[in-house]
Amino acid sequence: MTDLTSTNAGTIAIESSRFGHVDVEAAAVIAFPDGLIGLGGLRYTLIATDAKSPFVWLQSVDDGGLALPVTNPAHFFPDFHLELSEAEARRLEIDESTAIDIFVTVRAAPVLADFVANLRAPIVVAAGVGHQVINQAPGSELRAPLLPLAENLPSSSAA
Amino acid sequence: MLKITRRTGERIILGDDIIVTLLEVSGQTARIGIDAPRAIPVYREEIWVEVKRENEEAAKAAATPLPDVANAEATRSVARSGVTVTPEE
């Protein structure tokens, strides 16, 4: 089968407003059947700009201007826990044994002290399909500051 | 806006497969049941509005390098986490 939207077999070209021309392997595309809440976007991919950074970008495949920084919540929030309603677990077709990747969106700021992550609405990726879900776990803040834990992380200069 | 008056126990059908049931009314509060195909997400409005705003604010970030807060190699690797499902009442 020929995919006419691809520039090469197996790759999809993105003209990103942030990162310029990016070729993404088809296998690296994450389908979001319902988009992100209030933002839409049916296909995204993850772009890392710095291998050392805990942040990666969730870049829309179809809208070069749409990208959000995300992070692995376990990195900043060791107590992070995801609890889904039964309805959402059914929607995602996952259960407690499913291997999933979890990301949280990050609001960047001029200084790291003002960065916040949305623990209330994490993004769950399972088998190449992503959903933004509502976390039912108590204390899942909409704007959780990153810094308290960042201060405790080992820094390269302190070694 | 379409306005429909319902008694307790009466339903509204949206399309062929979404059923909204008025379960109970008590003062200013109504309990509503929603039966929809499982692929359709259902949100309380206030949560939807909050998350939409957070997504929009996150998407305003420029491509300026995000800070390295740690030298951990594990940072980029993604958590493989379990998940808990909360039974509904």
Brief account:
The complex is a heterodimer of chains A (about 160) and B (about 90). Chain A is mainly beta.
Structure commentary:
The complex is a heterodimer of chains A (159) and B (89). Chain A has 159 residues and is mainly beta. Chain A is built from three helices and twelve strands. Chain A has helices at 73-76, 86-92, 147-150; strands spanning 11-16, 20-25, 30-31, 43-47, 55-60, 67-71, 83-85, 100-107, 116-117, 123-126, 129-132, 144-145. In chain A, strands 3, 4, 5, 6, 8, 9, 10, 11 and 12 form a nine-stranded antiparallel sheet that branches. The relative contact order of chain A is 0.15. Chain B contains one helix and five strands; from the N terminus they run E-E-E-H-E-E. Chain B has one helix at 45-58; strands at residues 11-14, 18-26, 29-35, 80-81, 84-86. In chain B, strands 1-2-3 form a three-stranded antiparallel sheet, with no helix packed on it. In chain B, strand 1 (11-14) and strand 2 (18-26) form a beta hairpin. Residues 69-82 of chain B have low confidence and may be disordered. The interface between A and B is large, with 71 and 45 residues.
- Uncertain ranges of chain B: 69-82
Low-confidence segments of chain A = 154-159
Number of extended strands of chain B: 5
Shape of chain B: elongated
Distance from first to last alpha carbon of chain B: 31 Å
What portion of the residues of chain A fall into strands of 2 or more residues? 25-35%
Q: How many alpha or pi helices of chain A? A: 3
Outline type of chain A: globular
Query: Would you tell me the structural class of the helices and strands of chain A?
Result: mainly beta
Q: What is Rg of chain B?
A: 21 Å
Note the run of SSEs of chain A as H and E. EEEEEEHEHEEEEEH
Counted by DSSP, the helix tally of chain B is 1
Q: Strands of the largest sheet of chain B, in order across it? A: 1-2-3
Structural class of chain B: alpha+beta
Summarize the largest interface: chains and residue counts. Answer: A-B, 71 and 45 residues
- Please give the largest β-sheet of chain B: 3 strands, antiparallel
Estimated helix fraction of chain B: 10-25%
